[in-house]
Amino acid sequence: MAEITRIRTHAIRLPLRRPFVTAVRSVTALDAVIVCVGDADGRTGWGEAAVSWRVTGESAASVDAVTAGPLSESLRGLPADDPSVWGPALAAAVVHNTAAKAAVDAALWDIAAQTAGLPVHRLLDAESTSTVHTDITVSAAEEDAVLRAAAEHVADGFDVVKVKLGRDADRDDATLRALRRSAPAHIRIRVDANQGWSADEAIRLIRGWEDDDLGVELVEQPTAAADIAALARVTHATATPILADEALWGLRDLHEIARMGAADLVNVKLAKCGGISPARELIAPAQAAGMRVLVGSMLESVVGVTAAAHLAATLPGRVHDLDAGLWQRSAPVHGGARYERDRVELGDAAGFGILALREDLS
Ligand SMILES: [Mg+2]
Q: What family is this (predicted)?
């Protein structure tokens, strides 16, 4: 047993290949915090805290403060290889601050798996596979820009395209129809409205797509996060699978969504629920309630995506939502998950296989 000895943060800014635009924000660079946890035997574990005032409500400064304060105080001296000890301590150390907690949780799973000599996904589930499939996101934009971006991704080998809509229902309808007309028939189209529609708008659009047999694979978070009743109304009034994202942060949300039959699927993100350990506590009850689970991420670098992909590897046979690491011009670390077209390859290194922060960032 090696004790947790230190937790460090590195705030980084990485330019994006193209602007990331949703119904709630537009950014040209990724701001994130990389978290390193060390144990007494010299191992280092890696995690990432996604920071966005509009999405997670956390900042580089808040992650730094909560990590140096209550998280370090609660965790230092505990056995780094025992999630049953540090998991509850991390959860109880501070309320909210889920992105910061997710980063520390990931780093500790990294150390636990290095100690066991296994990739993290194998420590989580001996049956897991080391390849995870992902969709690719197309930013909210004018119709011609959406079609152009989608065509580039299709040419690059992606089969599942997730288009960000939710800014104006009528324009969204036209964009989706144009995308379906222009994309090859085998391309699966997902829609993410990022809370942008009323329930009535969502029902009108989705029923129209169903009537015209456009084959939309799923619609993500059509309505406001806090209004579970609206989400339930859309789910009950349409046949297209509805995916809850912003509506689901923790177990209380999940129970409410399940009780109301408000969604067909849930998008589990480490930054919302606080890490791999709390994410696993969401997966079993979601599945027991008949909902399928997809693993997604915030706009994050490959460090955050690596942790999410190791969890996703325990849920095989589905296309997850883990393209975020493709958006930066370059990765902040050496090692970690590797993209091969629409696949995230986890490799067979112990832990996450992350070796070091890029020299110019450390
Ligand atoms: Mg979403």
A: Belongs to the mandelate racemase/muconate lactonizing enzyme family.
